Structures are given as structure tokens and as C-alpha cells.
Amino acid sequence: MTKPLFYLAGGLLTALSVVFVVHSIMMPDQLWGQIQLMWLCYGLNYVLATLIFLGVLVAHKKKAMLVGFVFMGGSVLKFTFFFLLIYPNLKADGFVGRYELSLFFVPYLVSLFAMTYAASRVLQRK
Question: Taking the model in full, what pTM does it have?
Fold first, then answer.
């Protein structure tokens, strides 16, 4: 159970690091004031994806029927954190543009794809 978790954690950290560098290079100048928010988004997605994947592994070992609920519950948890912590900061200026939304949704999608790939590999073994 720990081997897939370490693979996901390492692979996700690598992927998010590369995407963070590319994302920060492509980021418009007016968003450089929100670089701390970008760090928060990437870090939050990394931690939550790792914890959700751990929950998927535990659910698969205990009762495989719960894996889908854990996976979807994790997505709800991520969006809850988004609306509680990140969205108020984005909306502070009264306008939320697509570049501002990319601060959260780029790492969200990267972590979602990595987590889905890792979970499918684990679930196919049995």
C-alpha cells in the first residue's frame, strides 16, 4: 500500500513542480502580486491529492465498493477548500478572470490526472 502512495507523491511533486515553473513563466505581469496564492493552490492540491489517494488505497483494501465515494468526496473537499480559502482572495478586486482561475485549476487538473492514473493502476492489479 505504501509503494503506490510514494510513487504518486513523488510523481505528483515532480509534475506539479514542472507545471509550476511553466505556469509562472506564462503568468501575466498583473498576477505577480498573487504568487503567494499560487503557492497555496499548488501546495493545497498536492497535499489533498496525496491524502485522497491514501483514502482510496485504504478504502480499496477495506471495502472496494467505497473507492468511488472516496474519490468523489475528495473532489468535493478540494472544491470546498477552493471556495473557502482561495475564491475570496481572487474575488477581492471584484473581477475573477481566467488567469486568476488558472491559479487553482491548473494544479487541480494535474493532480486529478495523476491521481486518476495512479488509482487506475492500483485498481487494475486485483
Answer: 0.89
Query: How many other C-beta atoms are found inside a 10 Å radius of the C-beta of residue 35?
Result: 12
HSE of 62, CA atoms in CB hemisphere, 13 A = 9
Q: CB of 16 within 8 A of CB of 46?
A: yes
HEC-encoded secondary structure of the chain: CHHHHHHHHHHHHHHHHHHHHHHHHHCCHHHHHHHHHHHHHHHHHHHHHHHHHHHHHHHHHHCHHHHHHHHHHHHHHHHHHHHHHHHHHHHHHCCCCHHHHHHHHHHHHHHHHHHHHHHHHHHHCC
- Res 56: pLDDT: 92
* Tens-place pLDDT, residues 10-44: 999 999 999 999 999 888 877 777 788 899 999 99
Over its C-alpha atoms, the chain yields an Rg (Å, rounded) of 16
What is the per-residue pLDDT across 92-109, written as a single tens digit (0 to 9) for each?
777 777 888 888 899 999
